[in-house]
Amino acid sequence: MHPILRILGKGPGDGAERDGFVVTLWTYYEPATPREVPPADYADALQRLHAGMRELEVPTPLFTDRVEHAQRLVANREHTPALADADRELLGDTLRRLGRAIGERGGAGQLLHGEPHPGNVLTTGNGLLFVDLETCCRGPVEFDLAHAPAGVGAFYPGVDRDLLRECRVLVLAMITTWRWDRGDQLPNGRRLGAEWLDQIRAAVDRNDLNP
User: Does the keyword Transferase apply (predicted)?
Assistant: First the structure.
């Protein structure tokens, strides 16, 4: 089985179309007792996922497409009516500057999961498995690592530390934007959005944004 399919738990040829609907069958993996995942294990699983993804050639949007979507939300007061002017400027400037800087530094990159945060990781008897790949995009691996817990990057070989730091601020700005979308349904989303705005301001004060 192809490495990426084995990692994700989906076998080749499992999809079928019936009456206009695509039916996909997935391999069942026995769940293991939930535990806190050591950063080294998380990094190893993500590295194997990326290795498998490098072997795939599929049309995929760039990570900057997602950044641009967040920028459109910030610019549209109708969709983000509760966002204060100063916060709107902060988010817009952060998304614009880091999206451009990371795009220039990260090069073409590779196929990524897009959101490999702990909520998209399953602990099974076969090890860690990543799910929910509808956010796949192409970009630097540091963009994926920015979604993982803070200690994971230290165990991922060849990481550009400065690029990872910038990606973390960029991802924070993106998920903060989602929380201020009037259609957001995440519980306590607005409270999280306010907390994350404070974190972005702190990152700006520390000069974590590429000038």
Answer: yes
